[in-house]
Amino acid sequence: MPAGLFHESYRSDERIFQTWFVRSWLIVFLLGCAVAPWLVSKYMLSILIEAGIAIIACHGLNLLTGFTGQISLGHAAFMGVGAYACSILNGQAGVPFVPALLGAGAVTALVGMVFGIPSLRLRGLYLAMATIAAQFIIEFTIRRWDRLTGGVEGMYVEPGKLGPFYFNDHIHLYYLTFILALAVTMATKNIVRARSGRALVAIRDRYLAAEVIGVNLFKYRLLSFAVSSFFAGLAGALLAQYLEVITHESFTILQSIDYLAMCIIGGLGHILGGIFGVAFWFILERILEVLTTMLNSAFPNQVTWFVSLREIVFGLVIILFLIFEPDGLAARWRTIRAYWKLWPFSY
Amino acid sequence: MQRRIIVFAIWAVVLAFTCGLIPSRVNAAEEIKWGVLIDLSGPTSDWGKNQIKGQLDAARWINEHGGINGKELKLIVIDDGYKVPRGVAGYNRLVDSEKVLGLYIQSTGTTMTLAKKIVSDGVATIAASFIGVFQDPAQYPFSFYMSPSYNDMARIALKWVRTTWQDSSRNPKICYLYPDNTYGRAILETSNDYAKKIGVEVGPDQVINWPTKDATVQLTNMSRYNPDYAYITSTAMNGAVILKNAKALGLSTKFISNIRNFEESLITLSGGAAEGTYGVHPIAPYGAPVPGMKKVVESHEKWHAGEEGTNVYVEGWVNILCVGEALKMADKAGNLTPAGIRDAFEQFRDFETGGLAPPLTFTNKDHRGSLTAKIYEIKGGKMVDVSGWIELPRDMEYFGK
């Protein structure tokens, strides 16, 4: 590891992976992800797919809420739009899977922009309420547009295929999710470190000042809604592939809140936040699952006591994070890294 | 130093849990695992908690009385919180990781989502959502449930309305109240058709969504049509609001609750408004004078002294008693696999649970366990039967719908 990191140009300062050390660890991590399907059980693989989908969704939400400061409580509904759009394009209209996937993203981006229009006038809690409206309007539309969405009966999702890959095979779906999660992470990082990202952060921190220095508020707010919804659409389309059947009950406001919670835990306004939040969430969920199952087997008579454990712990975790680590795990990670980097001369 | 040791210990425990190092079962060979995917923390959790209580007690009772031919029946309970993705994750865990032989699924959304997967995985399932299509083994060969479908129960209620109708100058009138989801809309098509056939007039549907806070608007709309009966598809928590509003409006309409609405908590939650309303139910209420009830009441008093026994609790018992019987038959046949359990269920011919539920029959062409239910009335805060067993003919007209 170099003794110090000295930047002599803006280009080197803005580089994503600044040292060979970081780069080599990243390669190890990616290789680990790439061989994971052969190492883990079928059940763990399905969890990894879910986590990958959640990462894509969280990046979208993080861009909107973390970087632009616009709280969205309708993210799951946007995922629903993507899920239905992809399934309808691929299954009913006969569009090949990859264009259908991108088309689903585009349709969701469009829907997101429509619901993003109020963001010009509404901020903070009022915008949050507008996005709740989006959640309910979209859910209602899915429920009632029977001929297109199958209504309350739900809809079977035609498994997507791309050349020799069939995405009802979980290993194939895992790789698709993995590649897309990687691509979305890179895309988000690049949006954030470019002009548009600086504009979004300026709007978040003080929109009036941003407007004064020449940031087009409406354009960037809408852009952030569009990109966020595009990612939500991709995540939704993947979730549809994973679930194989989609109903309006798969995309409720409870899901939306879960995604927001993941972002808060991971750290709003950090690229790593989306990844850390999802990882933390899924690992905690597994631990609690094992714990409650063990307690349930040990004390079958008290089964109804232990099931609430999950809800209590998750609620507690969110509260504790808001109090002690409002910047989330990403900020803590930064502190830990700085500590090791500077040790033993941390002054 | 002390603190470091504690931190280290916590990490060690966490690590051990995640790696699954702590052995959770010792005599794995003598265990039969059955999964339960149920809502214990979501919007239908009050129902789920009584159901799981019944199932666990029934399993315990079976194990104390010889088990499954000497083997222990073990229920693995997973809470899905009525969320579909969590339900799917729970299913994957039960099937791929715990390797259960079969499972019980509560929520309609999860059941619909998993329906196709269950067929391709070949896992025996007991559903709590009595959607008629799951009774067609040509489509869903592994799906069973110990009750008439929602459709059949609605038809039983209509039949009762027709047969008890006195006024010969006109036909009885009925309205349906339901939430706008799969569960709520399941009965509409066949019930409307059947009502027309037997001469019951159907008024405008009233959609009352969950969570129900107020149903005055829908009830006022309904009262313009002034039906003699209203059939509620809901859950007790939400249905109680409907009954309270109806009482406040002073409606003369008689309400008939479906199975998920008609439980003890409806009586307590509605604060007396449920008095005089009806319900259609295939399961004997808790404490009913039937031979099979003795062990249920004894177990409840022994293990849950001071708690209230409910008909959902009895339903939990019925589910596991039937599962236990099927497992015993499959084990005796030496084929303790999901396919063996399916074959065992399909050999049920008028299987008796001591009067807890009507006799059950499954064949490989027809998974309608029974087509029989009773009408109950709430009198003095108790469920009292006001009809005998009402049975529909086992014809193919509404089969699998």
Distance between the termini of chain B: 68 Å
Low-pLDDT sequence parts of chain A: none
Main sheet specs of chain B:
9 strands, mixed
Radius of gyration of chain A: 21 Å
Tally of helical runs of chain A: 16
Could you walk me through the main structural features you see in this protein, from its secondary elements to its overall organization?
The complex is a heterodimer of chains A (347) and B (401). Chain A has a domain at 40-270. In chain A, 74% of the residues lie in helices and 2% in strands. Chain A has helices at residues 10-13, 20-39, 42-67, 75-92, 97-116, 125-144, 146-149, 170-193, 195-205, 207-212, 217-243, 253-266, 271-298, 303-306, 308-324, 328-342, and strands at 155-156, 161-162, 165-166, 245-246. In chain A, the strands form two sheets. In chain A, strands 1-4 form a two-stranded antiparallel sheet. In chain A, β2 (161-162) and β3 (165-166) form a beta hairpin. In chain A, α13 (271-298) packs across α16 (328-342). The mean pLDDT of chain A is 88. Chain B is of the alpha/beta class and 401 residues long. Chain B folds into two domains: 32-145 and 289-370, Rossmann fold (3-Layer(aba) Sandwich), CATH 3.40.50; 150-281 and 373-391, 3-Layer(aba) Sandwich (Rossmann fold). In chain B, strands 6, 7, 8, 9, 10, 11, 12, 13 and 14 form a nine-stranded mixed beta sheet that branches. Chain B has a five-stranded parallel beta sheet with strand order 2-1-3-4-5, with helices on both faces. In chain B, α2 crosses α12, α3 runs parallel beside α4 and α5 runs parallel beside α7 (188-198). The interface between A and B is large, with 45 and 45 residues.
